[in-house]
Every structure is written in C-alpha cells, then in structure tokens.
C-alpha cells in the first residue's frame, strides 16, 4: 500500500503557505458546522506534493479520522480512467474514434432519435448520424440519465427501470442493451448531454479487449501506474479504510446513506462511476495526464493522444452552457468550460465562475470529489470527501479561488 505524502515546502513550489492555511480553515468550518464529515486536499506542482491536509472524520459514528490512505468512492471520476483505457485501445489500432458504436455493440444499429411527444406518445425518426466512439467520449451521442426529469427521453429511461443507470439485477452488457433500445435525445454529434455514455464505452472496451472491464483497467491502467488501492471493489484488508458515505439533509446537515456495493466484485461494472481510490491513486492518475501519457518510465498514451483528450471537442468549439436547453446544463459554472475526451477543459478563463487557467482539465464525482490539472501552472489539485449533496453544497468554486490565491509564480 502506497500513501500520499507532502514532498516539498509550499514556498519551494511557488505557493503561499498562509493562503493555503486560509484554504484549510475555510473547509474546516464546513466540518465544524456539520456540513462535511471530513476531507483531504492535496496540491502539487511539478509533480511534487506541496500541500496535504486531512481533517475531520471518515466515519463519524465510529470516530475514525480522515487519513492520507483513506479510500473514497470517486463516482464520476471513474470516467476519465475509463476514457484512458479506451484511448489505449485506440492507440493499439483495435478501436477508432470514428468507429460506429454498432460495429462493436450491434444493439446500437439503426438508432432512433426523439422527435416529439411523451410517454406512449413519443414519436421518433431514424438517426441521420450513427453514434461514434468519439461521441461516447464527449457525451454527444444523444444518451441521457433517468434522474434529470427534464426531457421525455429521461422519462423513458425511468420507465425502463434505469433510474440509477443500471438495469436491476443486470450486468454491464444487459444494461447497455437496455440503453440501446431507447431513443436518442438528439442527433449524435450535435449537442452535449452528460449521460450513461461512459458505461457504453466500458462495454465497448470489454468487447474489443475480450476482458471484463475491471480486469482490463487493472492490467492496463491501474497496475502500470502503481494505483494500488484503486478498483471496483475493496478487499477485506482495505475495507477499514473506506470512508462512510453521507447525504445532505434538508436542514443542511449530513447523515449516512447507502453507497456503491463495494464489498465483493459487483455484477455491474460501471465505467461511468464504479471505482474506489485513495488520494495516492488519484495523484498518480493526475501525474500521468500532467506528464502527457508517461509516468516513471511507463508510457500508457502518446503526448498527442493526451493533448487530444484534453482539448475541447464540443460542436462548434462551444462551452457546456451553450447546450442549455436542458436546465442542468444552463448553469454559470459551465461558462467558459468545454469538454474533451472524458474530461472538462477550460477554454475561456475570463468567463469561468472561479479562477482557472486556460487548458485546465479534470472532472468531479457526485460525492463531492474533484481533481484538476493546470498545465500552465504545472499544478495538480484534488479534494476528497464523501457527501452526496441535494443542491446547496457547492465547494468547488471556493476551492479553485483559494488555490488560485496561493499560487505566487
């Protein structure tokens, strides 16, 4: 087991120690007020960790503290890992970004696109463009999530039993087939809608590689990078280090809630949100991307592929807020933010909600975890906690502002 450690004083890394103290105090207040159980924050420059703080509890009832080796459900931070796995297959020539999804998953042949109506009155038409692998990576395939409650196709997902993005009792193959039976919200490649697309991508990886998703990712990504605690389940030895998961109450407090079934290999392997990891694991993954595909002499991707992954791929070069016909996307936090192949990317720092460098990329998870890489400042940042908010817990703009204030060169 490897553990994240501070490697250099903040001043040596061009960071202001007093500003970092303000950052720690800011988030400690959330713990003191009962809005967070505890957290870990790490800031590195040039690959060296210059600030590492743990505070509060990973399990409030048991009185167990957050520690550097605590394990976290990273939920949607799984998506960039799955995206890297897919890009490995692209570089090997076993998969192409311009492959039709149906070449590997025949259930996606002859897709239908929503035209009008709702419920049993939904009308569709044949898609003019078939979904491609690149559409899965960029969330432009026309897929959706059942929990949006914003579009008639969202409702069809719920009617199909996909409320939590998995068909009850099914595995990845069966669930992805269920997605394929439903209409697309829009013509592939024309809009952006954050969706179950990375689960479909995970199934493509299984078919192309001939291996279960967890095995392929372990052998081709986690193992080579030394991400020794990351995976789709926890062992008996790891289990005591797993943080409890909390949900935000109506009153603004937190209470324990059920999380991913991580004890034992899950039947449904979610490339969209199924992984657990330590801060050390996340640091190693960020380093792979910061170093453009290589870490400690191990190269997983070429620099050009990482550059493509971390460049805006949205139609017309637009930002996320441009696709605001669905209220979930029409948020100030999406101003100036584009999307690459599995990660968000800052395309207009002047329009972003919080200070951000041009080309900064990363992603977050629903339990209030996040990471980003700022190539211009040679900076990587991660924040880990375990709270699924209802709506009011919006920590990341403050985190970005406070980190930005700490950079002195």
Largest sheet: 8 strands, antiparallel
User: What is the CA-based Rg, rounded?
Assistant: 20 Å
Distance between the termini: 34 Å
Number of strands: 17
Which strand order does the major sheet show?
A: 3-2-1-16-15-14-13-12
Q: Work out the strand percent.
A: 15-25%
* Category by helix and strand content: alpha+beta
Oligomer: single chain
What share of the residues lie within helices? 25-40%
Average per-residue pLDDT, rounded, comes to 95
**Which H/E pattern describes the elements?**
HEEEEHHEEHHHHHEEEHEEHEEEEEEH
Task: Identify the overall geometry.
Answer: globular
What count of helical segments does DSSP give? 11
| Unreliable stretches covering 5 or more consecutive residues | none
What's the topology here?
Elements: H1 17-32, E1 38-45, E2 48-59, E3 64-65, E4 71-73, H2 78-91, H3 101-104, E5 112-116, E6 123-126, H4 133-138, H5 152-159, H6 172-180, H7 197-209, H8 213-225, E7 246-248, E8 254-256, E9 276-278, H9 279-290, E10 294-295, E11 298-299, H10 303-309, E12 337-339, E13 344-346, E14 361-365, E15 369-374, E16 379-384, E17 387-388, H11 396-406
Parallel strand pairs: 7-17
Antiparallel strand pairs: 1-2, 1-16, 2-3, 4-9, 5-6, 7-8, 10-11, 12-13, 13-14, 14-15, 15-16
Helix pairs in contact: 1-11, 2-7, 2-8, 6-7
């Amino acid at each position: 087991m490897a553990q994240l450690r501070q490697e250099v004083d903040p001043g040596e890394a061009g960071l202001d120690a007093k500003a970092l103290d303000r950052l720690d105090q800011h988030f400690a207040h959330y713990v003191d007020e009962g809005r967070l159980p505890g957290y870990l924050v790490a800031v590195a420059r040039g690959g060296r960790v210059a600030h590492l703080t743990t505070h509060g509890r990973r399990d409030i009832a048991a009185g167990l503290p957050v520690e550097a080796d605590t394990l976290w459900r990273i939920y949607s931070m799984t998506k960039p890992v799955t995206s890297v796995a897919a890009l490995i297959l692209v570089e090997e020539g076993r998969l192409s970004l311009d492959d039709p999804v149906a070449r590997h998953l025949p259930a996606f042949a002859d897709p239908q696109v929503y035209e009008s109506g709702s419920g049993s009155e939904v009308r569709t038409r044949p898609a003019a463009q078939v979904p491609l692998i690149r559409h899965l990576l960029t969330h432009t395939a026309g897929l959706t999530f059942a929990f949006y409650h914003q579009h008639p196709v969202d409702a069809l997902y719920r009617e199909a039993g996909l409320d939590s993005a998995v068909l009850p009792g099914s595995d990845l193959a069966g669930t992805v087939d269920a997605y394929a039976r439903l209409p697309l919200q829009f013509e592939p490649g024309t809009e952006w809608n954050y969706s179950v697309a990375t689960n479909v991508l995970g199934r493509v990886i299984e078919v192309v590689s001939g291996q279960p998703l967890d095995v392929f990712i372990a052998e081709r990504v986690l193992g080579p990078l030394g991400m020794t605690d990351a995976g789709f389940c926890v062992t008996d030895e790891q289990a005591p280090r797993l943080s409890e998961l909390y949900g935000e109450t109506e009153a603004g407090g937190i209470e324990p809630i059920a999380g991913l079934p991580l004890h034992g290999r899950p039947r449904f392997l979610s490339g969209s949100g199924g992984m657990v990891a330590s801060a050390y694991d996340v640091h190693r993954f960020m380093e792979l991307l910061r170093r453009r595909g290589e870490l400690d002499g191990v190269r997983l991707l070429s620099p050009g592929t990482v550059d493509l992954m971390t460049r805006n791929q949205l139609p017309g070069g637009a930002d996320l807020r441009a696709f605001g016909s669905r209220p979930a996307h029409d948020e100030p936090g999406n101003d100036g933010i584009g999307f690459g192949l599995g990660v968000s990317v800052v395309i207009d720092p002047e329009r972003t909600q919080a200070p951000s460098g041009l080309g900064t990329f990363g992603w977050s998870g629903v339990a209030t975890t996040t990471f980003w890489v700022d190539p211009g400042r040679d900076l990587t940042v991660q924040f880990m906690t375990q709270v699924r908010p209802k709506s009011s817990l919006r920590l990341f703009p403050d985190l970005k502002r406070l980190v930005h204030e700490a950079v002195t060169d």
